[in-house]
Amino acid sequence: MGAAARGAEPLPLRTVRDPQGRFTIDVPVVWQVESSYRDVAVSAKSPPMPGELSDTVDVIVRDLPLAISAENCGRQVAQLMRLIIHNWETLSEGANTLAGLSAYSRTYTWQTKTGQGRRSVQTCAVKERRAFVLIGTTMNTPDHVNDDLPEIVRIMSTFRPVTSSAPEPNENVPGSQH
């Protein structure tokens, strides 16, 4: 019941702006939102239900030294996943678009350290040298997958990069020639 009450209308959304002005995303009005100047720019989570973990949507932004493809971004995120969650089962993956950007998405299941089953949708979208990684997660139970996962996908689909915000030129990348 994290994203919306079973069988209820979708929750009303509010727009959240990245503190550095790189994107906006709409999240349910009842969700808690934390924003940061670190890599995880926005982290939103549903009110927890007793005995359950919250549904979450995180937006990670990274400016890279060189432009990469969305598929390469997805591969690099998978390498990080090996360090963070170690084991997962990919249910589907492939190229798509997000907010008009080339993207690569993966849906997968995994378990927390305490053994709770989770299902995540991860999308890596690229704009020049900037990579946006959106990760939405819910409990991996039939009710959560049927009711909450579509709401998480709806939230992620509201992501909009700010077109006037671009990565700094390469001369500002550490280690580059001036």
Any chance you could write out the topology, listing elements then pairs?
Blueprint: E1 13-17, E2 23-28, E3 32-35, E4 40-45, E5 56-63, H1 70-84, E6 89-98, E7 101-111, E8 117-127, E9 130-139, H2 142-157, E10 160-161
Antiparallel strand pairs: 1-2, 2-10, 3-4, 4-5, 5-9, 6-7, 7-8, 8-9
Key terms:
single chain, 178 residues, alpha+beta, Protein Transport Mog1p, Chain A, seven-stranded antiparallel sheet, three-stranded antiparallel sheet, 2 helices, 10 strands, globular, disordered C terminus
Describe the structure in your own words.
The chain contains two helices and ten strands. By secondary structure, it is α+β, with helices and mostly antiparallel strands. It has a single domain, classed as Mog1/PsbP, alpha/beta/alpha sandwich (Protein Transport Mog1p, Chain A). The protein has helices at residues 70-84, 142-157, and strands at 13-17, 23-28, 32-35, 40-45, 56-63, 89-98, 101-111, 117-127, 130-139, 160-161. Residues 170-178 have low confidence and may be disordered. Strands 3-4-5-9-8-7-6 form a seven-stranded antiparallel sheet.
Instruction: Say which CATH homologous superfamily is assigned.
Output: Mog1/PsbP, alpha/beta/alpha sandwich
Topology, number of strands: 10
What's the CATH topology name?
A: Protein Transport Mog1p, Chain A
- Sketch the topology as an H/E string, one letter per element: EEEEEHEEEEHE
Structural class: alpha+beta
For the sheet with most strands, the description reads:
7 strands, antiparallel
The N- to C-terminal Cα distance equals 53 Å
Q: Estimate the mean pLDDT confidence.
A: 87
* Coarse morphology: globular
Helix content: 10-25%
Fraction in beta strands? 35-45%
Widest sheet: strand ordering:
3-4-5-9-8-7-6
